[in-house]
Amino acid sequence: xxxRLLFLGVVLTxxxxxxxxxxxxxxxxxxxxxxxxxxxxxxxxxxxxxxxSDGHGCGVEVLAPQWVLxxxxxxxxxxxxxxxxxxxxxxxxxGSLDTTSGGEVAEVDHYYRLANYQDGLWGQDLxxxxxxxxxxxxxxxxxxxxxxxxxxxxxxxxxMTCAEMKPECFPTxxxxxxxxxxxxxxxxSASPSGELCVGSRDGSVSATNMDSGGPxxxxxxxxxxxxxxxxxxxxxxxxxxxxxxxxxxxWINGIISGTDVPPDDQIPNxxxxxxxxxxxxxxxxxxxxxxxxxxxxxxxxxxVEGQRPAPGAALVDQPADRQVQIADRxxxxxxTARADRLxxxxxxxxxxxxxxxxxxxxxxxxxxxxxxxxxxxxxxxxDALSLAFTSRRxxxxxxxxxxxxxxxxxxxxxxxxxxxxxxxxxxQGTSGSALLAEDGTTVVGIHNTHNxxxxxxxxxNPCEIGQDGGVTSVQGRAYxxxxxxxxxxxxxxxxxxxxxxxxxxxxxxxxx
Length: 512
Fold this sequence. Notes:
Elements: E1 31-32, E2 40-45, E3 58-64, E4 67-70, H1 72-75, E5 84-85, E6 90-94, E7 104-113, E8 127-131, E9 141-142, E10 152-157, E11 175-182, E12 195-198, E13 215-220, E14 223-233, E15 240-244, H2 249-257, E16 273-275, E17 280-285, E18 294-299, E19 314-327, E20 333-346, E21 352-360, H3 361-366, E22 372-374, E23 384-388, E24 393-407, E25 410-418, E26 434-436, E27 442-450, E28 463-465, E29 471-472, E30 478-482
Parallel strand pairs: 9-14, 17-22, 22-27
Antiparallel strand pairs: 1-11, 2-3, 2-6, 3-4, 4-8, 5-7, 6-7, 7-8, 10-11, 10-13, 11-12, 12-15, 13-14, 14-15, 16-17, 17-18, 18-21, 19-20, 20-21, 23-24, 23-26, 24-25, 24-28, 25-30, 26-27, 27-30, 28-29
């Protein structure tokens, strides 16, 4: 699967669509622009914030006084991945050579994506963003037709000038390069239905990371026209791939003119979810927790940073340093804390980890953050569950409680198997999501795995072990883990004490 590298450089908890690899170098073969382009702009979202001090994430082009065009995956950095809606903290700087000063700055108050990750972005990686106030910049028009092979093209952008995420790799001055449209065969991963292969054949002149959304310009008469916007890399040593804007002129004109405007997506309530770099989590309190106790973050044992707990063992009281952003109803950060200690983690018996935060329950609640209650009773078959991920809530039902679940070298007891349905189909990356009771406030379990390939008992392919030793492995089956035993192992001041009477977590040695 192709890597979509030319984006903000910020990883969210969206569905995994490819593997990571180093981006290409620079607007390769480019030079600093000698003059500004009125229609060219820098997209600078405050959430998620790009990993550079100038705030630049993607390029945009002004198509009308209150409309700019960029790549869909740039506008896809909203918390829930919605195709259309109202963003928060997005702005553009238009008509300046520099990302930090000059030009016009406008707030983005609406966006419309042609496609999202689930639709497939190839050939339709476009998004329109509406500006709260008009800009005076002269717009650029969409090219009248798809440029033919060997058509001269100019590329613009503020993409990285080296592969490392370092300040010296982030140019604040606009760069440009002149190149040509290549045959699609030069970009092995190109989609023939709507992409352009732009750059030198060997990739020595090409777009790069954070050039996404930037333009491929062609001459029509005495003016520049927009033929494409940067989407992704075209393969190792190949030019970049641009979405052919000309093929979507109808969609663009329908929105800008107001004659065919898509409705906003309905945003699910994801209050309280925490994104953890490929996993999720939730802030929980036990029945005995006090307002001045340090808050606890619950996630999977396999979601800890560094070395995972070994089979049959647990990690106890270890240093940690993880940023924790607790989502509001729309997925934007309501409160922020740091996990400063890994109190406990195991993948045996259950798959769970508890982090201590640097804020108390009282402090988080004063900031309006959602704090969940930790259940003390197990999930039973037929219980209704809500799987609380960072971008949506899955409506699940506990189809069965599985006495023994095996995956790789790990075994868990009384795992929760979900009934198969279109409303309960978690993907890789949803691990650690809380399983909520019908009250929406009590965490009764934690999602941890699903069978990807149908293999028996291997990594990413959990299997059920029957009382007779028989193995059942069904592709697509998803499972969560019980958490009712955790509260009995948490003592004063949110400390995990495996010696407490009744503590039954892996590693427990209750005092007699």
